[in-house]
Amino acid sequence: MLPNNWEGLAFRGGQFFAIVDLSFRLLCKMADRGQITGGVFDGPLAFDNAIDPEAARIKGIKSPVAGRAQILVVPDLEAGNMLAKNLTFLGRAGAAGIVLGARVPIVLTSRADSVRARMASCAVAMLYADARRRAALLPPA
User: Rounded to an integer, what distance in angstroms lies between the CA atom of residue 97 and that of residue 119?
Assistant: First the structure.
């Protein structure tokens, strides 16, 4: 079970997660113990070390995630919003946003988001809701 304040995405095997906040060390520990599976977790990592292999190499960071993060976990909605806007407006990255923790995923888009970003957010919410439904139908391990 994930901590109540965890904000992130549903994931499948092989994903690389960079934790960019000290309060999320718990997720890394849970992954080490096998309580969270399907990805490789590490952190906290500074943003540059999480996404740029050269920055991680120069700083001597030895981690399977450093420079290869595919998903960044942030501490709160404001930090996530800043990160997403930097990536989309400065880096022209594609984006999708959902908020977890409620009974159903909440689609979170900006008024400035493209139609593509809005549709991607809906798709991610539907995939997450479907994964939750399927997990609820599985017998306990």
Answer: 10
The count of residues in the chain is: 141
Tell me the C-alpha distance between 16 and 69, whole Å.
Answer: 5
- Rg (alpha carbons) of the chain, rounded to whole number: 16
Burial degree of 30 (CB within 10 A; 0-12, 13-18, 19+): middle
Cβ neighbour number for residue 6 with a 10 Å cutoff? 16
Report pLDDT digits (tens) over 63-115: 888 898 888 877 777 888 888 888 888 888 888 888 878 888 899 888 888 89
**b/e map of 96-132 (b: 16 or more CB within 10 Å)?**
bbbebeeeebebbbeeebeeebbebbeebbebbeeee
Contact 28, 41 (CB under 8 A): yes
Domains of the chain: which residue ranges? 1-75, 76-141
